[in-house]
TrEMBL record:
It comes from the Bacteria. CDD domains: lyz_endolysin_autolysin (cd00737). Pfam families: Phage_lysozyme (PF00959). One of its GO terms (biological process) is cell wall macromolecule catabolic process. It comes from Paraprevotella clara YIT 11840. The keyword Hydrolase applies. It catalyses: Hydrolysis of (1->4)-beta-linkages between N-acetylmuramic acid and N-acetyl-D-glucosamine residues in a peptidoglycan and between N-acetyl-D-glucosamine residues in chitodextrins. This is Lysozyme.
C-alpha cells in the first residue's frame, strides 16, 4: 500500500516547509517537510525537492507498516505511516498502541494510546506540544475513518 495524497498533504501541513535546516523542538536538525537523515546546519532545499524527499522518505515507513499486517484499509495505513514518520518505526513497533490494535481493543483504548504520544524533550524537559496533540488527534481520527 502507498501513502494517500490526503496523508501527504497532512504531513506537509503538520511539518510545514522549511527550506533551510533548523533544529526542531526536540533538537534534531530538520529540513523540508520533516526530513532528518543526514541534515546539518546550512543545508538548503527547494519546496519541490522537499516534496520529492518526503515521498522517498515515506517509502521506508510504508514498507514498515505493510509488514505489520494490521492495516487492511487506507485510513488505518495512513494513520500508522504518519505515526511512524513522526516518531520512528521503533516507537511504533514497541508501542502499546500497536499491541492494542493487534488485540482489536475497543476504539476508545486505541484512541487513548495515540494521545499518549504528545510529549517531546525540549531544553532537557518533557513537554506536551500542541502540534503533537493535533497530529495524534488527526491520526486517531484518520485511523477510525473520521479525518
Amino acid at each position: 500500500m502507498k501513502a494517500s495524497n490526503s496523508l501527504i498533504e497532512a504531513i506537509k501541513r503538520f511539518e510545514g516547509f522549511r527550506g533551510t535546516a533548523y533544529r526542531c523542538p526536540a533538537g534534531v536538525w530538520t529540513i523540508g517537510y520533516g526530513h532528518t537523515a543526514g541534515v546539518k546546519r546550512g543545508d538548503k532545499m527547494t519546496e519541490g525537492e522537499a516534496e520529492r524527499q518526503l515521498r522517498r522518505d515515506l517509502a521506508e515507513y510504508e514498507a514498515f507498516v505493510d509488514k505489520l499486517g494490521v492495516t487492511e484499509r487506507q485510513n488505518k495505513f495512513d494513520a500508522l505511516v504518519d505515526f511512524a514518520y513522526n516518531l520512528g518505526c521503533d516507537a511504533l513497533a514497541g508501542s502499546t498502541l500497536l499491541k492494542k490494535i493487534r488485540a482489536c481493543a475497543p476504539d476508545a483504548e486505541v484512541r487513548a494510546e495515540f494521545m499518549k504520544w504528545v510529549y517531546a524533550t525540549v531544553a532537557g524537559k518533557k513537554r506536551k506540544l500542541e502540534g503533537l496533540v493535533k497530529r495524534r488527534k488527526w491520526e486517531a481520527d484518520r485511523f477510525f475513518n473520521i479525518a
